[in-house]
Amino acid sequence: MKPSEIRDAGLAARGQQKIDWVQPRMRVLNVIRERFRKEQPFKGLKLGVCVHLEAKTAYLAIVMRDGGAQVAVSGSNPLSTQDDVAAGLAAEENIEVYSWHGASDDEMEGFYHSVLDAEPQILIDDGADLVKLLHTTRTDVAEGIWGGTEETTTGIVRLHALAKEGKLKFPMFAVNDAKMKHLFDNRYGTGQATWDGIMRNTNLTVAGSTVVVAGYGWCSRGIANYAKGLGANVIVTEIDPVKAIEAVMDGFRVMPMVEAAPHGDFFITSTGNTDVITQDAIKNMKDGAVLANSGHFDIEISKPDLDCLAKEKKTVRDNIDQYVMEDGRRINLLCEGRLVNIAGANGHPAEIMDMSFAVQAMSAEYVLKNKDNLKPGFYEVPEELDTEIAQYKLDALGVKIDELSEKQQQYLASWQ
Ligand SMILES: NC(=O)c1ccc[n+]([C@@H]2O[C@H](COP(=O)([O-])OP(=O)(O)OC[C@H]3O[C@@H](n4cnc5c(N)ncnc54)[C@H](O)[C@@H]3O)[C@@H](O)[C@H]2O)c1
Is residue 94 in contact with ligand 1, taking CB distance under 6 Å? Predict the structure, then answer.
C-alpha cells in the first residue's frame, strides 16, 4: 500500500485519545474484535474503506486490521475527516490513511484512487464513491473485488441504479437497509447528532422556534422528533403521501417547502434528493434563518441559488456562511450544506455506530465466507446477522427478553 497521505502526523496522540474514548462504548464491535483476533478471517487480505473519517470509523478499521486485513482508508467527505483521528489511525500497523480535512474535489478523488491502488478484495463504501470509480475510471481494479458493503441510503440508491442496468460488477451488501443499521443510526443517530451540529455551531435557542424538516424518512423523522423534544414547533415537508400522513399522525404540520419558508427559524434537509430548498423558498425566508443539511451530498440546499440571490457572502462564525440578500435579509448556511452532524460535529454517538459498524464488520466477513457462491449484484444483509448483532447489543446492555415456548412456536406456525 502507498504511504499515508494525511495533514499532520504530529496530531496522532490527540487522535488516539478520541479513538480511546469511543472504544469501550462500542461493545458489540469489541466482541467481534476478540473473535476476529482469534480467528484471523481476513488474514492476507486487503480491505478498502471509504467512510467519514472520525473516531468510530477509525475503530472499525482497527477491528478489521485485528482480523488480519491490511486496511486502506479514506474519508468520504472533505469536511468530515478529522485530521487528528486520521493521524492516530495512520500510526497503527497495517493501516494506511488517505484523507485530510477540507480537501478539494480533486484531492478527494485522489484519495479514493489511493485506496483502490491498494487493490483491495473487499470494500466498505459510504455513498458508493469507490464503487462509482470501479465502474468508470478504475475498472482495472474491479476484477479483483470479491464484494463489498454500502453504509448509506444515497449509496444504496446509486447501487440500485447500477444493478438495474445490469452493470454492477461484484456483490454489494446493503448495510444501510439492515434493521440494526437504519432503525437506530438513521433515526436516533442522525436525530441527535444533527441537533448537536446545529446547536454547537449556532449557539441559538431551539425551544419555541419553528423548525422546518424536509422529508419524513428514517433520518428526517429522527430530526423532527428530536426537534419536538427540544421544544420546537415542527413543520414537515414531504413528496410521499404515505410519509406525509405519518408525519400528520405524529402531530406535525405538513405543507410544501415554499409555504413553510416564511415560518422557519431552522431548515433541515435529509432526503437524499437534490434541490429540496431552492430560490422559491429562500426568497420567502425570514432574516436570520439557519439552513442545515444532513443528507449525504451537499445538493439538497441549492448553493447556486443562494449565490445567485445574495449580494454578499461572508463567513460569520466557524462553519457558518451568511448570504446577505438584496433586501438585507441574512440567510445562514451551516457547513457549506454538507452533513451538519459530521462536518459540524462528531457524527453519531459511539453506541449507535457500534451497531452500524458491527453490521459492516459481519457483512464484510460474510462476503469473504461466501465469495464463491455470490454473483455480481445487490444483496440484503442476511437476517441472521441482524438478529445476532441485536443479541450482542442486548447482552452488552444487560437486557434480557422472553423466549418462545414450544407451545407458542407451534401456535405461531399454525393456520388453525
Ligand atoms: N447525516 C447522517 O449521518 C446520515 C445518516 C444516514 C443516512 N444519511 C443520508 O440521509 C439521506 C436520507 O436518508 P434516509 O435513510 O432518511 O432516507 P429515506 O428514504 O428513509 O427518507 C428520505 C425521505 O425524503 C423524502 N423526500 C424525497 N425528496 C423530497 C423532497 N424534495 N422534499 C421533501 N421530502 C423529500 C422521501 O419521500 C423520503 O420519505 C440520504 O442521503 C442518506 O444517505 C445521512
Answer: no
Q: Is the CB of 80 under 6 A from ligand 1?
A: no
Among protein residues, the one whose CA lies closest to atom 31 of ligand 1: 276
Q: Collapse the DSSP code of 323 into the 3-class scheme (helix H, G, I; strand E, B; otherwise coil) and give the result.
A: strand
Q: How high is the pLDDT of residue 221?
A: 98
362: left (phi over 0), alpha (psi -120 to 50) or beta: alpha
Give the domains, in start order, of the chain with CATH numbers.
9-181+347-397 (3.40.50.1480), 189-343 (3.40.50.720)
* Residue among 38, 100, 85 nearest 63 (CA): 38
- Residue 416's pLDDT is 85
Number of Cβ within 10 Å of residue 273's Cβ equals 16
Given a contact cutoff of 8 angstroms between Cβ atoms, the answer to whether 252 and 226 are in contact is no
What is the rounded distance in angstroms from the CA atom of residue 167 to the CA atom of residue 102? 33
* CA–centroid distance, residue 404 to ligand 1 (Å): 36
The secondary element (H helix, E strand) that includes residue 311 is strand 310-317
Helix %, strand %, coil % for the chain, to 5? 50, 20, 35
Residue nearest to atom 44 of ligand 1 (CA): 295
* Distance of CA 270 from the midpoint of ligand 1 (Å): 4
Determine if ligand 1 sits within 6 Å of the CB of residue 197. no
Dist CA 382 CA 160 (whole Å): 18
Residue ID of nearest Cα to ligand 1 atom 3? 190
CB 295 within 8 A of CB 273: yes
What strands, in cross-sheet order, belong to the sheet with 377-380?
A: 95-98, 70-74, 46-50, 122-125, 147-150, 171-174, 377-380
222 CA from centroid of ligand 1 (Å): 11
Rounded CA-CA distance 127/297 in Å is 9
Q: Is 217 in the pocket of ligand 1 (CB under 6 A)?
A: yes
Mutation test of ligand 1: which of 182, 243, 270 has the most ligand atoms closer than 8 Å to its C-beta? Answer: 270
Strand residues in 189-309 grouped as ranges (E):
210-214, 233-237, 253-254, 266-269, 290-293
Reported as a single tens digit per residue, the pLDDT across 134-190 is 999 999 999 999 999 999 999 999 999 999 999 999 999 999 999 999 999 999 999
